[in-house]
Amino acid sequence: MSPRGRAASLPPADHASPDRITTNGLVVRHYNRRNSVKEYDFSTLPVAEPLQRSLAAAFASHCTPHRWGAHTTSQGHWEHVVRFAEFPSRQDHPPQDLDEFTAALMKRWRTNQTAAPGGYNALTAVGKLLRSDSRLRSGPVADELAVRIPRGKSKTQSYSEAEFDQIKVAARRMFRAALLRIEENGRHLDAWRAGAFPEGGRAWVLGEGLDILARTGDLPHNVGPSRKRNLKTRYQRAMGGISAEVTWQRLFLTRLEAAALAVLLLAEYGWNLSVISQAEVPRASPDTGEDGCPTYRIPLDKYRRGAGQYYESRNVTDDGASSRGRLITQALEATRFARGAVEILAPGTNLLVVWRTGWLGPASTDQDRHPPVGPFRFGVFTNEAQEWVRAAGFEGSPFRRGRRTVTAIDRREPAQHSQTTHDRNYALVDKRVQNEAIEVIAAGAEDAAGRARRAVLVAHLRDQPTDGDVETATADCSDFEHGPDPAPDGGCGASFLMCLGCENARVHPGHHPRLVHFHQALTNLRTVLPPPSWGADWGETHARLEDLKRKIGDGPWQQALTRVTDGDRTLIDLLLTGQLDY
Question: How far apart (Å, rounded) are the C-alpha atoms in residues 315 and 481?
């Protein structure tokens, strides 16, 4: 019962329009974020036509990019629906439509699924679809659908330090070799463009070939009668053969080398495959400071299930071989020729991870991926990750376990997800975290989550103010009426010192000068107060400011220090003396 799929040349004007379901009411179209369409034929389900139509309508209500942005999501739900439809069809008196569902029927289905592999996902996915129908939003069936389902324990655990080190070493070795190869050929190309070689010699022809390769992604070929492509003899001699290793790999990453880069990005920044594949080219700050070290602004997108798009930006500085920004510098160098060729072929693509394929036949039919540009592909997906693992001699995918390792062990803070998700899905269920924090676990999981929330910056970072936000002493507030510490008479009852620990808070560059000054003042205050007093009064606030400093980077932090105004100093003095508290 596979759905029919096709690529849409033009998207519908309104994704919420009836165009998502055909006139017969049985074929649902899902347009993903890239406006490609996939169709699901509900007439194939083994249930009565009225029930087919009702399930199709419920399914269609979720087929919008802000709810289901990828075809993999709709495909997963479709498979759950197909399996669910078999259950009512096997009843002695199969229901003809949703209004004939009974609480007893749904309870039997829930009982059957609870012990089945993937049962939690099936119950959650189908239950959500059924509850979207107005007939099942209240009453006994709705109550049965609302029964809480125990979530199975995650079998994914973090790597040991030695295991993760082996993976990083293997990835670094492969990517480093590719980087050196591309840099060496890049220097030859730069020399050729500068006229360093006499025309006609082998070095000159090699430079000419590299120039063609950098502009087009390929070398000139002769096409024989059988349509076979043969590299022109002059370039065969100059390149040293016709293999990929001595031709296009001189300037471009392979799919395995791109996967190795993705492993390093995961290890350094905690990005998952989705974030890596959508990552845009980081931009270096136009002002590199007195030391000349570039600070990169990294824009990140992650699409959340049912909650639209999550966006954040990070700043990292390349000030040495061990700095967090060095990998960005190396990634930009390793992909510069591929990105340059893509910009010529498809201007505005602007993705960071670009690699070349040696396969020039039909491209992948995965419509969730960025479409190919000539011989170039973008990002790293499950297939590339699995192939790299096998080539490197490991088992399983390093990205799920690796992300847990980076998030729960190394960073110990959320990465493109909420604090609740971090606590529930990463920290509290990881055996290594438990073993390294026995006293905290013994005090209770909730207490551990609370401590984690207090120890890091919870406020969201923004590039500019958001309309409608209310300014406070330390941040902007997006929801003054529904904070974690409401006042008895309404509004927020929390101290301004707590703003940086609130999910409603937004921090943008306009706040940086006063927060930098606040951090400096608390650091100075630490030298004159007894440690217990300073820790009790200012320790959490200082920890959040330290976290903010790390996230925005040393360069922007130092620049903000030069922009501190008298108004900022007055405001921070009022906070320090308790005259501006709530």
Answer: 32
Cα–Cα distance between 101 and 90 in angstroms, integer?
14
Taking only the tens of pLDDT, the chain with its 582 residues reads 444 333 332 233 333 344 666 667 789 998 888 788 889 999 999 999 999 999 999 999 888 877 888 888 889 999 999 999 999 889 889 999 999 999 999 898 888 887 677 778 888 888 889 998 999 888 898 888 888 776 666 666 666 778 878 888 999 999 999 999 999 999 999 999 999 999 989 999 999 999 999 999 999 988 766 667 788 999 999 999 999 999 999 999 999 999 999 999 988 888 888 888 888 898 887 555 555 678 888 876 655 544 444 556 678 888 888 788 899 999 999 999 999 999 999 999 999 999 999 876 555 666 667 788 999 999 888 888 888 888 888 877 777 766 666 665 555 555 555 566 655 555 555 556 656 655 544 544 455 445 444 557 788 888 888 888 888 888 888 887 776 777 666 678 777 888 888 888 899 999 999 999 999 988 888 888 888 888 888 888 888 898 889 888 888 888 988 999 998 888 888 888 877 654
Report the C-alpha gap between 295 and 3 in whole angstroms.
Answer: 47
SS3 track for 389-441 = HHHHCCCCCHHHHHHHHHHHHHHCCCCCCCHHHHHHHHHCCCHHHHHHCHHHH
Which residue, among 293, 252, 260, 53, has the nearest Cα to 170 in the 3D structure? 260
Residue 280: how many other CB atoms lie within 10 Å: 13
- Backbone phi, then psi, for 535, in 5-degree steps? -65, -40
Q: Are 541 and 522 in contact (CB under 8 A)?
A: yes
Cα 84 from Cα 130, distance rounded (Å): 11
Those residues whose C-beta lies under 8 Å from the C-beta of residue 90, and which sit 6 or more positions away, are none
> What is the token pair recorded at 209?
């070939």
pTM of the model: 0.61
What's the count of helices (H) and strands (E) in the chain, helices before strands?
A: 21, 14
Chain center to CA of 438: 31
Cα 288 from Cα 293, distance rounded (Å): 5
Distance CA 543, CA 363 (A): 49
Query: Phi-psi region for residue 465, left (φ > 0), alpha (ψ -120 to 50) or beta?
Result: beta
DSSP letter for each residue of 181-199: HHHHHHHHHHHHHTT-S-T
Structure tokens of 307?
A: 């909650």
What distance, in Å, lies between the first and last C-alpha atoms of the chain? 60
Tokens of 132: 């979207």
Rg (CA), the chain: 28
* Dihedral (Cα; 40, 46, 50, 54), 10-degree rounding: -40
CA distance 280 to 427: 29
